[in-house]
Design brief:
Mean pLDDT: 90
Strand content: 15-25%
Distance between the termini: 38 Å
Family: Belongs to the MEMO1 family.
Organism: Sinocyclocheilus rhinocerous
Pfam families: Memo (PF01875)
Order of helices and strands: HEEHEHEEEEHEHHEHEEHHHEE
Shape: globular
Radius of gyration: 19 Å
Oligomer: single chain
Structural class: alpha/beta
CATH class: Alpha Beta
InterPro entries: MEMO1_fam
Protein name: Protein MEMO1
């Protein structure tokens, strides 16, 4: 999806990732026999979408997190953006501030597919995801359980490394969980262009994981992509300038998400066609919530921050919107 690249001209290199990397672990004392080969996904967008320096990245994340406030109750799920950190890092911090590392043992990361057509959801071939802070381990038991359902496909390592929607959450996940970094695993899921019925199916499947307080769900999504380059120029003149119309449109959708009603969110998208790139991961979350609500689970979702990459005033302008929110289970 080239529109997101427009803001990051240096990232074209990430479309041509280096060959597969492996970890090799020695066994048998001083012997040279190698075993336990682990496929490793490189931090392919480090150095372009965010700094590759671990110390600089740590300082940036700490700075943004220090400006955010915790709300009541730890997050069971968050929605946060996936653009370059220069644009959305401060916004994302408001969601990650709600994570409680002392109770979180598994982090599901649901991101939309930008580069490959996908009608279902896909799992990574990797076992380890690298970040400039420290490496994150994929939960192979949960992966095996998901694979057994027959509802998932396997993405290639190249597809995984070209995609940024999951990777942009890895450094923040590592930072939020650093006090318990050896005690948690991740479950990355690439979400395709799902039909409403498939969003419901995946929501139902994942609802049992959402019900577990030791699991955290991260839903990766930017909000309105506005401008001719995005082929989306909705404008409600009654709101004043273009950027205010965009904000009104986004906040209308955010308010519907806060209602935790997947049908209302789907109807909103059909009516306004807002270019929310993570609409399918959001739809999966809303359907998982709806499944739990049938069983009497009490939850609420609140958006905590909203930002735009720039303020559009003319038809030649363009912007991407970002929102951060948290789901709390009572």
């Amino acid at each position: 999806m080239l529109f997101e690249l427009a803001y990051f001209p240096s990232v074209f290199s990430s479309f041509f990732p280096p060959p597969t990397r492996f970890y090799w672990t020695k066994i048998g004392g001083a012997g040279t026999k190698m075993s336990n080969r682990m496929v490793c996904r490189e931090a392919s967008h480090a150095g372009s979408w965010y700094t590759a320096s671990g110390s600089q990245l740590n300082a940036q994340l700490e700075g943004w997190l220090s400006q955010a406030q915790p709300t009541a109750g730890p997050a069971r799920a968050i929605i946060a953006p996936h653009a370059g950190y220069t644009y959305c890092g401060a916004c994302a911090a408001h969601a990650y501030k709600q994570v409680d590392p002392s109770i979180t043992r598994r982090v599901f990361i649901l991101g939309p597919s930008h580069h490959v057509p996908l009608s279902r959801c896909a799992l990574s071939p990797a076992e380890v995801y690298r970040t400039p802070l420290y490496d994150l381990r994929i939960d192979q038991k949960v992966y095996a359980d998901l694979w057994k359902t027959g509802m998932f496909e396997r993405m290639s390592l190249q597809t995984d490394e070209e995609e940024h929607s999951i990777e942009m959450h890895l450094p923040y996940t590592a930072k939020a969980m650093e006090s318990h970094k050896d005690e948690f695993s991740i479950v990355p899921v690439l979400v395709g262009a799902l039909s409403e019925s498939k969003e419901q199916e995946y929501g139902k499947l994942l609802s049992k994981y959402l019900a577990d307080p030791s699991n955290l769900f991260i839903i990766s999504s930017d909000f309105c992509h506005w401008g001719q380059r995005f082929r989306y120029t909705y404008f409600d003149e009654s709101q004043g300038e273009i950027y205010r119309s965009i904000e009104h449109l986004d906040k209308m959708g955010m308010g519907i998400i806060e209602q935790l009603d997947p049908i209302s969110f789907s109807n909103y998208l059909k009516k306004y066609h807002n270019t929310i790139c993570g609409r399918h991961p959001i739809g999966v979350l809303l359907n998982a919530v709806a499944e739990l609500k049938k069983n009497g689970v009490d939850m609420n979702f609140s958006f905590l921050n909203y930002a735009q990459s720039s303020q559009c005033r003319n038809w030649s302008d363009s912007s991407v919107s970002y929102a951060a929110g948290t789901l709390v289970v009572h």
